[in-house]
Amino acid sequence: MRVTSSLFLLAIAALSQQSVQAVSANVQDALHKVAKYSANSDIRPGAFIVELDGEPGSTNVQAIAGSATSSFAKTTSKFTVDKQYSTLFNGFSVKTTENFDPIQLAIAARTSGSLERASRSVLLTAASTFNHPELGNCWKTFGCMWQLGYDLVGDDYDPNDPVPVIKPGPHPMDCTGHGTHVAGIIAGQGPQVIGVAQDATMGMYRVFGCPKNGKGVTTSDDVIIAAAEAAYRDGADIISLSLGGVSWPEGPSAVVCSNLAKKGVVVVAANGNDGASGLYTAGAPAVGSGVLSVGSVDNWNNTGGAADIITPSGDKRISISLSSNENIPFVFNPPAPIAAAVDSANSNLGCATISQDLKGKIALIQRGTCTFNEKVVHAQAAGATGVVIYNNVAGAISPSVTDTTVTIPVVGISLSDGQYIVSALDCRGCLSQGSEGETGGQMSSFSSYGPSAELDIAPRISAPGGNIYSTVPINMGRYGSKSGTSMATPYTSGTVALLKQAFPKYSVAEIHRVLINSAKPRADAKTGKNIHPVLERRWSGQYLRCHHNPCTSVSADGVEGFSSSQSVRWAVRTIDLKNLDKKKSARVSFSNSVADSLSNWNADGSFAVNPRVWPADASGSQGPTTLPQVYVPDLQYYDILEPGEKRSVDVFIIAPYGLKESDRWFYGGFLNFTMTWSGEKNTAKSFTVPYTGFNGNYRQLDVLSQPSEGLPILTDTKGIPIEGTKFSVTDTTPAVVNFRLEVPSRIVKVTLVDMKNTSLGYVTGGYLEYVPRNLQAAETYLYTALVTKRVFQGRAWHEAC
Length: 801
Prior knowledge:
Blueprint: E1 9-11, H1 12-15, H2 25-31, E2 43-52, H3 61-66, H4 71-75, E3 80-85, E4 91-95, H5 102-112, E5 115-124, E6 146-151, H6 178-187, E7 202-206, E8 219-220, H7 221-233, E9 238-241, E10 245-246, H8 252-262, E11 266-270, E12 283-284, E13 292-298, E14 305-311, E15 314-320, E16 336-340, E17 362-366, H9 372-381, E18 386-390, E19 410-413, H10 415-424, E20 430-432, E21 461-466, E22 468-471, E23 479-482, H11 485-502, H12 508-518, E24 520-521, E25 539-540, E26 554-555, E27 559-560, E28 563-565, E29 568-578, E30 586-594, E31 597-601, E32 607-614, E33 629-631, H13 633-637, E34 640-641, E35 646-654, E36 665-677, E37 685-695, E38 713-715, E39 735-739, E40 745-753, E41 759-771, E42 783-787, H14 795-800
Parallel strand pairs: 1-40, 6-7, 9-11, 11-13, 13-21, 16-17, 17-18, 18-19, 27-37
Antiparallel strand pairs: 2-4, 2-5, 3-4, 5-8, 10-12, 14-15, 14-20, 16-20, 22-23, 24-25, 26-29, 28-29, 29-35, 30-34, 30-36, 31-32, 33-35, 36-37, 38-39, 39-42, 40-41
Helix pairs in contact: 6-11, 7-8
């Protein structure tokens, strides 16, 4: 089993001394939403996945979990084993009561077999696919593009239900439009949507139900694992996953996808849409080893609609996204008045109840803080006849509204157009029924940042994902525009399909190298000097134009990790170069393209909601000491590769020692190797290898938030802080430990300590493994654990590990 070290110990005896007055506004807001379980809403209480030691198939999972006579079954009367896996995942899923603590599950599994870990089942938001005239309008018939897959869950499936209803239908039909949109990007047959890989044989494994009770669709890791194993058994060459949630590479879905890659299947996965929350927001399964994680760049073209802002001083036409609920078009005849919505928190975000009368008006609301669903529901309750959501950063947005109670049209517009409308409202501006995108070719504001929790580069590549026009179900209007790394993922998956068609013997690693080494770094419009940070969103993939066959000749997946010599940190890595031309020699030249540096902390050490960018958000000038320096001595002495020659060269990277270590910068860039073949003119080919590093001692970073935030803190279940050093708790009236993580943590332990400093064991929910950092949204701002009369004696088990 894997042995992990504890990063910190949270003792209850010390928490009662916290000053209530020191609690920040953000924390106070989050405390009002404190729940019985972790505030990260993608965790399902009472659901666990147990992973056993060894590779899939090396352990008799059924003997451990499935047999009524097994020692596991005998010691776990409170458990119900649900699904068992042995093809891509070595373990099983378990259901139990909400009050159950995973430490008991771990102890029980250890007595029966070799336990790797017990993980909570993660809920993911996405959708499945649907028949469409431009998607063949067929299912598993002769000549049909759809030959693989089935429905695993049915329309009524909701993993949050006490007993989820699973009634698979005959076809994997789409309820939200997301899956149909994704499928069109891969294989749309035209005439309106031309897919990247029209000739691909397609499969679809439905893992999402339909929206109900006003909530969006979700699924769970146990279903995703089952679908991945089914796709593998059916012979899938490429698996495209437009879903995910912030997690570690050790998350169950990431482990499964890593095992798929080991077995030769190319796995392409969305990196996530949590860019507004800064670093460490890359999601699983995209962060899995060997998985091609995909970020998003905005479209160059306007694929939405247009609206006229009518004012006494003149009219202005602006671009709008297509209505997020396409069956309710954004059309007003005669023109409808627009009003800036103000909620009960005196904010234009629409995240609280809106008391103003919006009857017959279009509500103008700014993006941020809460979900699109919440904003629209509040506006509709105030009588709004439509909603316009304007971005909080440069660029357009396509808001996704999945709440089935919404019956009014919802569109998105850019920040600049939103500000224009706000300034025009004094003129009684109105909307009636495009223009080019102002951020075309730039990284999408929603695209998640790296690194992964294990400090791997993520995403590995980016592709068009902002404002993408594709197919949607017929009852939703046939076509529509959506935004997300979900859209960039099928674009990349289609490119992989074309690459495998051209080079069917390429391995997973070779396909990764072709795409990554041939992609183009994107310029950073914010700084105007360097290129986008490596950990921000990487670079965009283009269709490959290969001069030589095969077209890659640089072997490296990225340079990560650094050594230290006094005050200068440096690293040396080996990169393989090969001249694949068997007749002509090649001259190799090298250059280093420096990317902007990123930090999730302000200069005073406080957490930065929006990551700082060097040099744009820092004082000082750029120079050799503030930029990473790279040297390749081998190419200075001999830069010729003979026909067919392969050579390993050492690359020396020096960290930017002129930057303050206290600022905690992540830096990086791109190694550019350019080959020119003898006797050829204007045929140089460049290959790119990314690198990244951390400027400081990462092991010394504080895991918990700054004390100025007033955390950790004890509250009751209503979020009211507990004062004093004495308090009473019961199983029905527990005290709640609230804390924040600013960096991901392998282990979080919350223990009860008596006045003699003796540990009494873990509190409920007080032992967590592979924990993401907290994001900035109210529902994910804090982690919580409960202090009750029940304390789990897990110390002996943990120390035995």
